[in-house]
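Morning F.,

Quick status update on the modeling queue. The single chain you submitted on Monday has been processed. Sequence for confirmation:
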Amino acid sequence: MSLCSSLSLSLSLSSPKSLSFLPKTKPLSFNGGVSGSPVTSRFRASADVPDFLSADWLESRKKRPFGPRLNFSAEEAVQHQLDALKYNDQPRQDYGIEVLYRFAGFDPFERSTYFGPFFDLGQFERFRRIFHHSTYRVLLGHKDRKILSSLFVKENRFKQRVWIRGSRPEEEEIFQFTMAQRVGGSWDGYWLTESLLHDGDAFAGGLAY
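Structure tokens below.
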């Protein structure tokens, strides 16, 4: 017998029939069922969704400062501003002017042509003083008004001329609102006032504001 044959025979007799390096494990059983069956878990919320809104939330929402609304048309935006000026001191003094300031579409950090000439209107007090000027004061507490003309210059640009009869004798003036609908940004879709101009030369005598 050759050396190689003897060595092979010796190894086969001395080696175990099987070697196992992994521990034996029992088949997994889920929920006491058959091994390998899928587990179905269902979770159902038993608690009601809590109501975090206070009881007077709706009333407080109604009392928020009046200003531009997304659902206002251009005509409605002008009408609401004129109504605010007609009842300017309700519920407090110059509240109507505050409403117009919220509708104003100018940049408070730049000089504006809202009233025609370039004015610095970044501070509300300056804006308010102009409405107490001899020409614009006719709008405050006015007794009557009439729309003279309305025109959409562009799809998102609207002009309206309004005749105003003031609270003082023979006090009549004509003003023109120019409304612009914003496109993009946080005011997207809102109609804001680009300018409110007197039909004549409102500041011919100068203005200290």
